[in-house]
Amino acid sequence: MFRLVGVRQEAGIGMDVSSAIVAKSDQLNAIDLVGRDVTVTIVDVKPGPADQPVHIITDVYSPSRPWKPSKTALRDIVQVWGTDSTAWVGRRLTLWNDPEVLWAGQPVGGVRIRAMSHIEKAFEAKHVITRGKTKKVMIQPLADVDPEKVTAALNAISNASTVQQLDAIEAHAQKVGIHGDVEVEIANRREFLNN
């Protein structure tokens, strides 16, 4: 199942315009992450052409918009998860737009990893900025999702009979770090309650 981020109107909150800023592209782009981090679960890893040899399919973006990680991001993943991409499936990453990433000497932004699941503590990664110049960054551990919390939230969502109840469930899901796992169900139930 893929969670698709969309434009939606929420009662008294305004319109979520996340999908309106997404670039028309065949991949996840740094510009898609402006102003927000996105936590994704890896669904599959497929080979690509020589210039972008790894295509990571996630639960947030459909297979038609894979994340095609840079060498820097791939090095970060391999440093802790290893080179066997089948082991990556089911693991989670928090991605963000680093506006300082250079292309042809100009800052254009790039998708970087802020946090990873299946690591016990933060680790230091060395990112190559230009030839001979590196930058140390810390990648944080990403807590594993408690399936019991997700199940409880899904049950509460399906039983919510008012938008106010749904708002409270959504706030709780954000607080306990499972919002991304129930976001689509919340949106669907909100649409049902508003009709």
Description:
This protein is α+β, with helices and mostly antiparallel strands. About 25% of the residues lie in helices and about 30% in strands. It has helices spanning about 70-80, 145-160, 165-175, 180-195; strands at about 10, 15, 40-45, 55-60, 90-100, 100-105, 105, 110-115, 125-130, 135-140. The protein has a six-stranded mixed sheet, with helices on one face. A two-stranded antiparallel ribbon has the order 1-2. A two-stranded antiparallel ribbon has the order 6-7. A hairpin with a 6-residue loop joins strand 3 (about 40-45) and strand 4 (about 55-60). Helix 2 (about 145-160) packs parallel to helix 4 (about 180-195) and helix 3 (about 165-175) runs antiparallel to helix 4 (about 180-195). The longest helix is centred in the C-terminal third of the chain and has 16 residues, at about 180-195. The two termini are about 25 Å apart.
Give a short overview:
The chain is an alpha+beta fold. It has four helices and ten strands, in the order ββββαββββββααα.
